[in-house]
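TL;DR need structure tokens for one chain.
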Amino acid sequence: MTIHDLVQGARDRFVTAGISAGLAALDAEVLARQVLGWDRARFLTDRNERATSVFLLNYEPLVARRERREPVSYILGTREFWGLPFEVGPDVLIPRHETELIIEEALALTAKDACPVIVDVGTGSGCIAIVLAREIPGARVIATDLSRHALEVARRNAVRHGVAHRIRFVETSFLDGIDETVDIVVSNPPYVPSVSQPGLIPEVRDYEPPVAVFAGEDGLDALHSVLIGAAAKLAPGGWLVMEFGCGQDDCVVSLVEGVEGLDVVKVRHDLQDIPRTVICRKSQAPTQES
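>> reply
TL;DR here they are.
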């Protein structure tokens, strides 16, 4: 039996488990290449080689995990974000491509030679905080999370990417205990309504940490908490860049309108033209009349 035969068999098992055919084929290949240590070019060239017993012994446990709908990123222990590899596991949310919009917007608001204080609220794996620390050399970054285990993952990622000395990790809820005034707040908070839980795909429902996914019955609790915290901590003229869920744009704009001191500047759409990220500015301090 060839490597290709085993990969095809894994693909068929994934389809039977409810994974779409295209994703099933990709996942079966990615797991095989992980075991073999091959890049895609070699896999396509040599996949018709006879499979060894060592390959089968190491491949089958990974296939069984994916068949149970465990996310591939958790099986591999890594996920790419902004072109960088990040350690991920069941203690942290898996970074999504659309979250890179936060990075793009934060960079657009910051000059390369600036030295802003940035807070990443609900840092998880640390991907946002770490990328911003790398992209803005003068930035001082604070990364908060309620989960001690998530912060441990984030710290390891910061060490891996050489910015651990420039990020202060704080175990707290939202911006609680952050006493200094900051220039930029970024956040990808939980925003999935708890009532939606039964209908989610198993990869999210059964494996990703609920505290990083769900935020009350309407999904707005954490978004509101970030807005309140940002209004209190941002310097006049400071910025908030925050992700939200599909279809929540009108509700988020209404939430901002109800928070004194914050104004919506822009709502950014993703590549599928879905509103995904809100950019808000803290009101400037009133000018003192002479």
